Amino acid sequence: MFFYKEIFPYHLSTMSPSSKTIIITGATSGIGLALARQLLTQGCNVIGIGRSTERCQQAQRALSNVNPHTHLTYLLADLSLQVQIHKLAGQIKQQLASWQIAYLDGLVNNAATLPFHQTITMEGYDTQWAVNYLSGFLLTNLLLPYMDCAPAARIVSVSSASHYHTRMHWHDLQLFHSYNPLRAYKHTKLAQVLFIHELNRHLQDFPNIKAFAADPGLVNTDIGLKGNSSFMDWIWKLRRKGGVSPDRAAEGIAFLLLDMGVRDSHQIYWRDAHPQTPNPRALNLKDCQRLWQISSRMVNLT
Ligand SMILES: NC(=O)c1ccc[n+]([C@@H]2O[C@H](COP(=O)([O-])OP(=O)(O)OC[C@H]3O[C@@H](n4cnc5c(N)ncnc54)[C@H](OP(=O)(O)O)[C@@H]3O)[C@@H](O)[C@H]2O)c1
Questions:
Q1: Are 257 and 212 in contact, with CB atoms under 8 Å apart?
Q2: Whole domain around residue 63: which residue ranges?
Q3: Ligand 1 centroid – CA 205 distance (Å)
Q4: How many structural domains does the chain have?
């Protein structure tokens, strides 16, 4: 628990001992990979999700010796495609059965992408909308049955402070008519917070499951170098120099997954283990319900 001691000393006494099982999407690099390492160190079993076989294998190799007393595996899924998310949920079920684990303790919707030019998935969705927001909505709903009987399950969507600087574009949710990479990114990050707010309302009868949005701050990762734009690469290389390390960012997320004290909190948006007030637009009940209904239709969820 060395990192909590250094950064969150006042929470140390309330940390639960682990043997939790936690899923992390986008666990092949940056914050997701750092979080996987920290959770293994804490004694958690980890299922990492990645979109590339090679990067999944690299990550699994890099983490294989972190804690021999825990389970670790990587599963492959392109989260821009709902068909692959459904398949992934089936694979997760099989993985839990093969480890003889009865329930899931956590899901971290962390994967995100930032293409410079708009790309449309084979299923007809804007890729940022599909990966950064809709995949988390669908995967969470598919995995909720596995969290039902967990003593204290947590769902964490990794959002961003950029969600403060936008509003919901209801008439063009996927920005088909007005795409700009940062505009789309902020929009998906706001949608995540609305989703988390509404999810907690849906979970009122399940006090053992809590959902949070985590703001990792500015983090020195490669996210801005993967958008197929040398201009964006240049900007991000400068900007990320001011960011914290992925390890430091992951600590705030691990806190939300493992700390016993947050169980009774009604705060939904957290940064570095401290609750923050989100964009007030994310707390508008009608908007939260509206987004839930639209998202349900988009993923054919009854
Ligand atoms: N970096 C920051 O300053 C910052 C600030 C605020 C919030 N965040 C949030 O933090 C989270 C993690 O970002 P990061 O900075 O750590 O970036 P990152 O290193 O690029 O991590 C993103 C992860 O998502 C995966 N991914 C992308 N598209 C995918 C797809 N279609 N299917 C499955 N996985 C996919 C990536 O896989 P590959 O390894 O194959 O690329 C990678 O593992 C994101 O939600 C981001 O919005 C980051």
A1: no
A2: 18-298
A3: 32
A4: 1
